[in-house]
Design a protein that fits this description.
two-stranded antiparallel sheet, single chain, mainly alpha
Length: 352
């Protein structure tokens, strides 16, 4: 327990100390995220906060993880570095989507093949339990890539990615600690410390954004936590902390990044556009259009995410598929209500 607390404190302190220097350097070198038509901010803002998040998290993990717990963590750290390099390059000098994807694919491959961060069962969803090896590999890589890019896509308003990442890491990190998976709990604790420090500078008026460096890194860690949360249920059958319907509960924990990505991609495809074409269809954009401030929109999504987690834990006994339908159905209904309200407001504004 002391190592986990030290991991949190070390990561918090290093990130908190590093961010003012990064802000100063960004201003000096003109490294800003500029306002634009699709942007929700109105002033030029430094966007290299992810460097501090990465540094604080990585240093803390290496510093406090006992060597006998390290195991496959060396491969996880290798994936961290690849994602960091991609994100930092994209924040400073944008790279093509194909090169960015290849780097993400390499990091995902390291996690699956070397760190054994892999989904091996669907726990009865659609009647499927144990997965064939090739299906397990492809599904795991796909899941990692989806979660990485989901956090990249929702990083559009102050505090949102950081607060949701904080919530996800806290919930899953607490569970890992309870079941005795100390090395993964320390990864979560280190990330929490870095995000708490970052959010001090990211709440409105934001002094810095996490950029691609932070959002890709955050997505990578959350993908590891989610997959390991699901997979550990294969080996802790006698634990009092077993979660029934683990895959669906994991989706509930990551509901807004995952659902918003699914929703936006589906809408773009239905309109005949590329799923990667930029627009203002994200749920946080809808809340902004309804008149919410950045922090109000972040607070609404944060609290709703907590509701989804509690609902999933309460209904975990009904089975994976039924729980998944309820979770996604509720998210769809809520998003449709918000979209309709925003559309009515736009029409009223146009009419007036």
């Amino acid at each position: 327990m002391y190592d986990i607390i030290l991991a949190f404190l070390t990561s918090f302190a290093l990130t908190y100390i590093a961010i003012p220097s990064i802000i100063h350097l960004s201003i000096k070198k003109g490294l800003f995220d500029e306002p634009g038509e699709r942007r929700s901010h109105k002033v030029s803002t430094p966007s290299l906060g992810g460097i501090a998040i990465f540094a604080g998290t990585l240093f803390s993990i290496i510093m406090w993880t006992p060597f006998d717990y390290f195991g496959d963590l060396q491969y996880i750290l290798s994936a961290f570095i690849i994602i960091f390099l991609i994100g930092a390059k994209d924040d400073i000098d944008p790279i093509s989507p194909s090169k960015k994807f290849m780097g993400e694919l390499l990091a995902a491959g390291i996690l699956v093949f070397k760190a054994n961060v892999k989904l091996t069962s669907l726990y009865g969803i659609f009647g499927v339990y144990q997965l064939p090896e090739i299906v397990s590999i492809l599904l795991s890589i796909f899941t990692i890539l989806v979660i990485i890019n989901a956090f990249n896509l929702i990083d559009g308003i102050n505090g949102l990615s950081g607060s949701l990442g904080l919530l996800i890491a806290f919930v899953l990190g607490t569970w890992f600690y309870l079941v005795g998976s100390i090395e993964i709990a320390m990864v979560a604790a280190a990330l929490i410390g870095a995000l708490v420090a970052f959010l001090k500078f990211n709440i409105t008026p934001a002094k810095i954004f996490m950029g691609d460096t932070g959002s890709l890194f955050l997505g990578l860690i959350c993908s590891i936590l989610a997959i390991q949360f699901i997979e550990l249920h294969n080996t802790i059958k006698d634990s009092p902390y077993i979660i029934k319907s683990a895959p669906s509960v994991a989706i509930a924990i990551l509901i807004w990044p995952l659902f918003d990505t699914l929703r936006v991609f589906s809408l773009r495809v239905m309109e005949g556009k590329s799923p990667f074409s930029p627009d203002r269809k994200h749920i946080h954009h809808i809340l902004i259009d309804l008149g919410c401030s950045h922090m109000q929109a972040t607070g609404i999504l944060f609290l709703l995410n907590i509701v989804f987690i509690l609902l999933a834990l309460l209904l975990q006994g009904i089975g994976n598929l039924a729980l998944l339908i309820i979770i996604l159905g509720l998210a769809l209904v809520l998003s449709m209500i918000a979209s309709n309200m925003a559309e009515k407001k736009r029409k009223q504004k146009s009419a007036s």
